[in-house]
Amino acid sequence: MSGADAGARGACKSSVTRLTFAGVNTNSTYDCIVIGAGQAGLAAGYYLQQAGKHFLLLDGHERIGDNWRQRWKGLRLFSPNQYNALPGMPPAGDPLSLPDRREMADYLEAYATHFALPVKNACTCVSAKKTDGLWKIETEQDTLITRQLILATGAYRTPFIPETLANSFPSVIRQWHSSEIQSVADHADADTSVLIIGAGASGQQLSHLFYGTGADVTLTGPVLPNLPRNFLGKDIYWWLYKSGMMTLRNDRPPGSWMGNAGKGDLTVAEPPLPDGVRRIKTKVTLHDDGHLQFDCQKTMPAPLAWPGRKKGIVVWCTGFRNTYPFLPADALDEQGTPLQQSGQSTVYNDLFFLGLPNLLRPNSSLVGGVGRDAERIVKLILRTKTAGN
Length: 389
Ligand SMILES: Cc1cc2nc3c(=O)[nH]c(=O)nc-3n(C[C@H](O)[C@H](O)[C@H](O)COP(=O)(O)OP(=O)(O)OC[C@H]3O[C@@H](n4cnc5c(N)ncnc54)[C@H](O)[C@@H]3O)c2cc1C
Hints:
Keywords: Oxidoreductase
Bound molecules: flavin-adenine dinucleotide
Distance between the termini: 35 Å
InterPro entries: Auxin_biosynth/cation_transpt (IPR050982), FAD/NAD-bd_sf (IPR036188)
Low-confidence stretches: 1-16
Number of helices: 7
Strand content: 15-25%
GO molecular function, one term: monooxygenase activity
CATH architecture of the largest domain: 3-Layer(bba) Sandwich
Protein name: Putative flavoprotein involved in K+ transport
Organism: Neolewinella agarilytica
Mean pLDDT: 86
Number of domains: 2
């Protein structure tokens, strides 16, 4: 289990020093460029550094950890500290506590600083093309050349909202995707009816937070297979790691027999919803004439129209779809999903993916799982023959 890794303890918020970066080299050919410096990119950076590679991490955000900082105030990770370790430096603090978004962000920043990883922030890749056997990476500022390319751009970045249903709400009802919520207090108060669509981890957590503003809250969506937080006196993650369920490779038995590859993440239930939150355990398909229609043909008055509230909002907790607008089209299938096997592109042998759900193991997209995948991808990189080596 990675939480037990030896190594430096993660710096806490007060001791974070910002990484100073020497700059990109547009005149040399990199061995590897990693696009994205979230947890997946940083873990790749750790192993590339150990392998003595000439590499660079690019990230569109101003600051390492911004992806977590931009998630909603009050967010707590569902995985306890001890299972959130990147290789070589576990996070500080109580092993069983659930860090908040800032603690996680600061841990990532401290990690990059501790290992002096070469990260170029505020640098968005706009195009990656294969030319004369090498990858030509165009950013908003520079053109960079690399032999190998790792995409660590995150699996939870492009919000997904079912369009037909969204368009069926009248325009007076404001709508946000969960990824746009910074603080629930900016959107709701005691005069607001909130309809949360999607009852996964985000939907459940936001229901608690919106309810705390005094708003009238309705959470809709089928019950998802959430795991209990505790089982027989132990945190559920203890059991998942102890039993090997989180770490079984998908591409070989017995993991492959379980057919995990490409499936979603495991989620852990939030504390039970307050009694005052209305819970509708079916999928909504349409808002029509003030009524919500469910896929079981049932209709009910939209909670947004219930009396006593002055405004109604919809919050979409319907997840994400990955997009790769900067990659060659032939690296993706018709849905825009990377054509890859166990993290290596099946079209370009020098293109790799990290951080996708269930890429290699059920914990591939989680903080505590991506390190092991990164180690394996970097080993593959070392074995893969490219132009000039
Ligand atoms: C609400 C929420 C709660 C979660 N809670 C947990 C949890 O409790 N425990 C857990 O283990 N996991 C959790 N996850 C899942 C996962 O750990 C996080 O989503 C995590 O941020 C994924 O890390 P990543 O490095 O793969 O991607 P990201 O954190 O998304 O990082 C990708 C980086 O790539 C950069 N990037 C993207 N495109 C470009 C480009 N073209 N050019 C340059 N840079 C680019 C972005 O700026 C970003 O910094 C949660 C996810 C969500 C959405």
